[in-house]
Amino acid sequence: MTTEKLAALADFEASAALTDLEKLILRYAEAMTGSPVVVPDDLFDALRHHFAEAQLVELTSAIAWEQYRARFDHAFGAEAEGYSEGAFCPLPQAVAS
Question: What is the 3-state secondary structure (H, E, C) of the chain?
Answer without folding.
Answer: CCHHHHHHHHHHHHCCCCCHHHHHHHHHHHHHHCCCCCCCHHHHHHHHCCCCHHHHHHHHHHHHHHHHHHHHHHHCCCCCCCCCCCCCCCCCCCCCC
